[in-house]
From TrEMBL:
Its EC number is 2.7.1.148. This is 4-(cytidine 5'-diphospho)-2-C-methyl-D-erythritol kinase. GO terms for molecular function: 4-(cytidine 5'-diphospho)-2-C-methyl-D-erythritol kinase activity; ATP binding. SUPFAM superfamilies: Ribosomal protein S5 domain 2-like. GO terms for biological process: terpenoid biosynthetic process. Coiled coil: none annotated. Residues 65-148 form the GHMP kinase N-terminal domain. The keyword Plastid does not apply. The keyword Magnesium does not apply. Keywords: ATP-binding, Isoprene biosynthesis, Kinase, Nucleotide-binding, Transferase. It holds the Pfam family GHMP_kinases_N. The lineage of its organism: Bacteria, Pseudomonadati, Pseudomonadota, Gammaproteobacteria, Enterobacterales. InterPro entries: GHMP_kinase_N_dom, IspE, Ribosomal_Su5_D2-typ_SF, Ribsml_uS5_D2-typ_fold_subgr. It comes from Klebsiella michiganensis. PANTHER family: 4-DIPHOSPHOCYTIDYL-2-C-METHYL-D-ERYTHRITOL KINASE, CHLOROPLASTIC (PTHR43527:SF2).
Length: 176
């Protein structure tokens, strides 16, 4: 059964750099706010164990794409936990509207959406905390997308406190 999953954009309503770690990541404080705008992933489970990205992204080999990396990471983690049904696979396509490198978290959102969607579709039953920990292996912004709500973030962005910023209108411009 083919299903469609929203993969929203996010804004950093403020961003303070608080330090630099030995691994090159900056420590920070920020407030993440989700937008009702973003990419859409279409996922159809397979029973032959194959993962296919049906809409490749120009300049990004499939095996480097965060969508496929997230799916493979979930497969490995669920298999190690004994929670991956035999033959779990998926055909995944993306309607990509968020610009790559635009600061809206498109790739991180796509990765989180895949983790959450395939966890549900495959019936792996990994917890939100487990999915967020997997997401952190893919990128610092992935955990907030796994959680799915606005949050104050610290550390490299992985220490999250739920937040409810004022509802406002935001204008996001893409000059072309």
């Amino acid at each position: 059964m083919m299903t469609r999953w929203p993969s929203p954009a996010k804004l950093n309503l403020f961003l303070y750099i608080t330090g630099l770690r030995a691994d090159g990541y900056h420590t920070l404080q920020t407030l993440f706010q989700f937008l009702d705008y973003g990419d859409t992933l279409t996922i159809e489970p397979r029973d032959d164990g194959q993962l296919r990205l049906l809409t490749p992204v120009d300049g990004v080999p499939d095996e480097e794409n965060l969508i496929i990396r997230a799916a493979r990471l979930l497969m490995q983690a669920a298999a190690q936990a004994g929670k991956l049904p035999a033959g779990s696979g998926a055909d995944i396509s993306i309607d990509k509207v968020l610009p790559m490198g635009g600061g809206l978290g498109g790739g991180s959102s796509n990765a989180a959406t895949v983790l959450v969607a395939l966890n549900h579709l495959w019936g792996c039953h990994l917890s939100e905390d487990e999915l967020a920990a997997l997401g952190l292996q893919l990128g610092a912004d992935v955990p907030v997308f796994v959680r799915g709500h606005a949050a104050f973030a610290e550390g490299v962005g992985e220490i999250l406190t739920p937040a409810e910023p004022e509802e406002k209108w935001y204008l996001v411009a893409h000059p072309g």
